[in-house]
Write a structure and sequence with these properties.
With about 375 residues, the protein is an alpha/beta fold. The chain has 17 helices and 14 strands. The protein folds into 2 domains: about 200 residues, Rossmann fold, CATH 3.40.50.2000; about 150 residues, Glycogen Phosphorylase B (Rossmann fold).
């Protein structure tokens, strides 16, 4: 969709580009929207993505001026699909690797015009087309409010076009079995699972573990951070919760909920933390919480486990694939708050249990290797180009 923030999907694109380049391929990265200062600035500078839609700006005497334009980024996404920006450049490639929408629609158009094959790497259904809980509300007051509203009104007409774009791909790769299951059920389309991976740490940092839970996900409605606060309210008063990631309009309501439940002094909102520092936070916490329901995969949960931090997740989606229940943490039936709190509490209180799961978690998470990921990806691209 775009390099909008430092999220898991964006991380996968970056690592794929870096990895394929190291293996000797020429890789060009394109995106409708690029927020250079918001999405892994150092890594973006390394892969140098290009905007598909030219920015509405001009330079004068070394100063850059942006032309005021409403819904700039949402408009860029729509324009990237319906207008032939960068068509010649894209058609000059051997094959296109398209990450969800709108890139699947772009790949479909280029394939029809130029015969260039495209492979889809699918993280999830596009939320603008397949609604997630309170999706439109989350964009209220943002650049994407009009896009969420417009596409929400026309979903019955847009979904068949979306399916067509996916069906036209030479091959589909999925970030999890759960994501693949959704596409089979909704679109009758399948393919191979190619799990994302993590950068492993050579040795586990020697860090004092606090009686603290941690969760690291974007402050969006569907990430259900509010459920982590519900769980904390069921735990003893010595247990605290750290919530990382950049503030959004939702953050204030989360703070208000914590206060209303009487745990405001036990919840710490850190704001955005650079990846190296975030690893230190993972390594000093006792338990990682994955509060999101219907989470397709989730890199942070693996990153925490790779640092020896057991995890507790809802067992309805990707959590079943990123946590080994009873070995590296626990998988709990959705919305069973008592069981969730009991499992998290046992990892805080039982030292021998925590030690065993910490060792297992470190070993398990490091089986998600970028080299394995790239083997599948490179093989797929070589076979289809």
């Amino acid at each position: 969709m775009g390099f909008l923030y430092s999220g898991g999907g964006e991380r996968v694109v970056i690592e794929q580009a870096k990895g394929l380049k190291k293996r000797g391929h020429e890789v060009k990265v394109y995106s409708p929207v690029i927020r250079w200062n918001k999405c892994f600035p150092n890594e973006l500078a390394e892969i140098q993505p290009s905007r598909i839609v030219p920015p509405l700006q001009f330079s004068m005497r070394d100063h850059e001026f942006t032309i005021p334009f409403p819904f700039r980024e949402a408009s860029a996404m729509v324009a990237s699909v319906i207008l032939p920006f960068k068509s010649r450049e894209l058609a000059d490639c051997d094959i296109l690797l398209c990450h969800s929408e709108p890139s699947m629609a772009i790949g479909y158009r280029i394939a029809k015009l130029s015969g260039i094959p495209y492979v889809g790497y699918l993280h999830q259904f596009t939320s603008f087309i397949h609604e997630r809980p309170a999706f439109a509300e989350n964009w209220a007051g943002t650049d994407f409010a009009v896009l969420a509203l417009f596409l929400g009104k026309f979903r019955p007409f847009i979904r068949p076009m979306d399916r067509l774009a996916h069906a036209g791909a030479a091959r589909l790769l999925f970030n999890s079995k759960w994501t693949r299951k959704r596409f089979v059920e909704e679109y009758d389309l399948s393919g191979e699972v190619c799990y994302p991976a993590i950068e492993t740490v050579g040795t586990n940092p020697k860090s004092v573990r606090h009686e603290e839970l941690i969760t690291a996900c974007r402050h969006y409605v569907w990430k259900r951070i509010d459920l982590a606060i519900d769980v904390l309210a069921l735990l003893p008063s010595n247990v605290t919760l750290e919530i990382s990631s950049e503030r959004t309009p939702l953050t204030s309501s989360l703070e208000e909920k914590a206060m209303a439940l009487g745990v405001g002094d036990r919840v710490k909102f850190t704001g955005y933390i650079e990846n190296e520092m975030l690893q230190q936070h993972f390594a000093s916490s006792r338990v990682y919480l994955q509060p999101s329901v219907e989470e397709p995969f989730g890199l942070s949960i693996l990153e925490a486990q790779s640092l020896g931090t057991p995890a507790v997740a809802w067992g309805d989606a990707g959590g079943n694939e990123t946590v080994l229940d009873g070995e590296t943490g626990y998988v709990v039936s959705p919305y069973d708050f008592a069981d969730y709190a009991s499992k998290a509490g046992s990892l805080v209180e039982d030292e021998s249990l925590w030690n065993a799961m910490s060792r297992n978690a470190r070993i398990w998470a490091r089986t998600f290797s970028w080299e394995d990921h790239l083997d599948i990806l490179e093989g797929t691209l070589d076979a289809e180009r």
